[in-house]
Design a protein that fits this description.
- The longest helix has 29 residues.
- It is built from three helices and no strands.
- It has one domain.
- By secondary structure, the chain is mainly α.
- The chain is elongated, with a radius of gyration of 16 Å.
- Helix content is 90%, strand content 0%.
- Keywords: Membrane, Transmembrane, Transmembrane helix.
Amino acid sequence: MNILAITAVAIIWLLTQAYLFDKYAIVEYWGIKRSWERMILSFWGVFLRLLLAPFYLIVLELDGCFEQCLNRILREGREKR
């Protein structure tokens, strides 16, 4: 399997998770109103997830789950079309 495709999927997923987590969990829970504070939280959320992405990929690849999950997602996508 192409490592660049796996990396791209992982980065897109991590960016999505960072955006949703930062927007809904931290900002709403702490009641942050100022835009610069939101920007800092969003930056650190994305940065930390990108920093941890290789470790997630290594663990999932060693487990053998990542390739199976990706194949299942691709297969389900083809079946829906």
